[in-house]
Design goal:
CATH topology of the largest domain: Aspartate Aminotransferase, domain 2
Number of strands: 13
Strand order of the largest sheet: 1-7-6-5-4-2-3
CATH superfamily of the largest domain: Type I PLP-dependent aspartate aminotransferase-like (Major domain)
Shape: globular
Strand content: 5-15%
Radius of gyration: 26 Å
Largest sheet: 7 strands, mixed
Oligomer: single chain
Number of helices: 16
CATH architecture of the largest domain: 3-Layer(aba) Sandwich
Bound molecules: pyridoxal-5'-phosphate
């Protein structure tokens, strides 16, 4: 493979992207001073137009992306999002409207927010939503702030939040930032909440439990209702991390399981590309008891007119400018309306089916710590390969050679050497089979020829990096 040269190496003094005809008027020298030239970078590259185009096109083609092939990182990181939703979010009226415009001039935008709220209420069984939080983790923090505000009004914000060890890592951090101390609840052998451990820890000092459902093992918390009852009986509230709603849509509703507050990740389940660090949205849904504390402004409607309600005296205030990341809400609504209720259900059913197809096809070759059937993702480990000196990173790197993006590695923490696979609903059977084929080939290589795994990837643009050195001594500047 030819190594792409750095743009600095292509540079040649005097090369330029364009050239004007010779001047037939006197040159205006003062203009030269105004040509925007970056001088903060030493030896700023000088290249022709075609060199720039080809350089960056070649670079873009060295990257693996969700438009190119299977991406087992799943909805949690990057699921394929239908292009139509992007197109709709690019409609001129959406992108040029200004949040300061009078509500009378923004009726369409407000209708989008209100309609999305109504649709998500139906999907989740909650009573009201805010779209302000920009991400899942911010949604969690907002959820905890709502719970604290409610508890404070009752007279005591309480001290602790209970979090199962299979929860997402952002949960304890959100509780902590909201001023709560975290107590960990154990998982049982099926990878779900140990109800005895929960009962032993639940008392009048506990404000809430935060349950990731399905949890980070991809296992449905089938005793969430019982868990909610235990927490409610002692005056606590139930927060559900609903980032993985991709597995539940149209099948069951958190609002029917005793959940008081939940966040969704529009940039995971509902069609905003995730992983590029771009804007996202972590709307928070609540039951009636928490509604008065939701962030302002709230979008409401009366007689077909949409209006903005800032008069919410118990509100925790603003957590984002204006209404949150509006265009993300547009994409989510486009996604939901284009699928319809049956379509949404089919998304979840297919996501779960695809994941279980992979789990069953690979369970002989790869160790599963938990035998419980999973929903939208399954967590293998490298335990069987370890005897040949092969670990999850070698498997992941070898997948790159075989044209597959590696799955999530070393997460969740309760599975050592984890390889968490989430195919999502969009992969065809042929694509799932090619992933399974690649994983089987690697399992065989581990037995027969582990060296090839230890030195992988071989066919990629960049070979195996020294990740420790890259993290400790990052080189972010070109030094000739
Ligand atoms: C992704 C994720 C989060 C955090 O969401 P961000 O938008 O990345 O902040 C929280 N919980 C779970 C279960 C997740 O998958």
């Amino acid at each position: 493979m030819i190594r792409e040269r750095l743009i600095f190496e292509i540079s040649d003094k005097g090369k330029n992207g364009f050239r004007f005809p010779k001047l037939d008027v006197p040159e205006n020298k003062s203009l030269n001073d105004r040509i925007p030239m970056r001088d903060s970078i030493k030896d700023f590259p000088q290249v022709s137009e075609v060199e720039v185009v080809r350089h960056f096109t070649r670079l873009s083609q060295t990257n693996y992306c969700v438009d190119k092939g299977i991406y087992p990182l799943g909805s949690c990181t990057m699921k394929y999002n239908p292009k139509i939703n992007e197109r709709i979010a690019q409609i001129e009226n959406f992108i040029t409207s200004h949040p300061f415009a009078d509500p009378e001039m923004s009726q369409g935008n407000l209708e989008v927010l209100k309609t999305l709220e109504d649709v998500l209420r139906e999907v989740t069984g909650m009573d009201a939503f805010t779209f302000q939080p920009a991400a899942g983790a911010q949604g969690e923090l907002v959820g905890m702030m709502l719970i604290r505000a409610c508890m404070e009004e009752r007279g005591d914000p309480r001290k602790f939040v209970l979090i199962p060890d299979s929860a997402h890592g952002t949960n304890p951090s959100s509780a902590h930032i909201c001023g709560y101390k975290v107590k960990e609840i154990k998982s049982n052998d099926s990878g779900t909440i140990d109800l005895d451990d929960l009962s032993n820890n639940m008392d009048k000092d506990v404000a809430a439990i935060m349950i990731t459902n399905p949890n980070t093992l991809g296992v449905f918390e089938n005793q969430i209702k019982e868990a909610s009852e235990v927490v409610h009986s002692k005056g606590g509230l139930v927060y559900m991390d609903g980032a993985n709603m991709n597995a539940l849509m149209g099948i069951c509703r958190p609002g029917d399981m005793g959940v008081d507050a939940i966040h969704l990740n529009l940039h995971k389940t509902f069609s905003t590309p995730h992983g590029g660090g771009g804007p996202g949205a972590g709307p928070v849904g609540v039951k009636k008891i928490l509604e008065p504390y939701l962030p302002v402004p709230r979008v409401k409607n009366k007689d077909d007119q949409y209006f903005i309600d800032e008069d919410c005296p118990k509100s925790i205030g603003r957590v984002h400018s204006f209404y949150g990341n509006f265009l993300v809400a547009v994409k989510a609504l486009a996604y939901i309306l284009s699928l319809g209720p049956e379509g949404l259900r089919e998304v979840s059913e297919t996501a779960v089916l695809n994941s279980n197809y992979i789990r069953k096809s690979l369970e002989k070759e790869y160790h599963l710590k938990y035998k419980t059937p999973t929903l939208h993702e399954c967590v293998f480990s490298d335990k069987y390969q370890k005897q040949y000196g092969v670990s999850n990173i070698d498997i992941a790197k070898r997948l790159i050679d075989l044209g597959v993006h590696p799955p999530t590695m070393s997460f969740p923490l309760i599975v050592h050497g984890a390889l968490m696979t989430e195919p999502t609903e969009t992969e065809s059977k042929a694509d799932l089979d090619s992933f399974i084929e690649a994983m089987k080939q690697i399992a065989e290589e581990a037995r027969e020829d582990p060296g090839i795994l230890k030195s992988a990837p071989h066919n990629s643009y960049v070979r195996r990096l020294d990740e420790t050195a890259a993290a400790r001594n990052p080189k972010l500047r070109w030094e000739p």
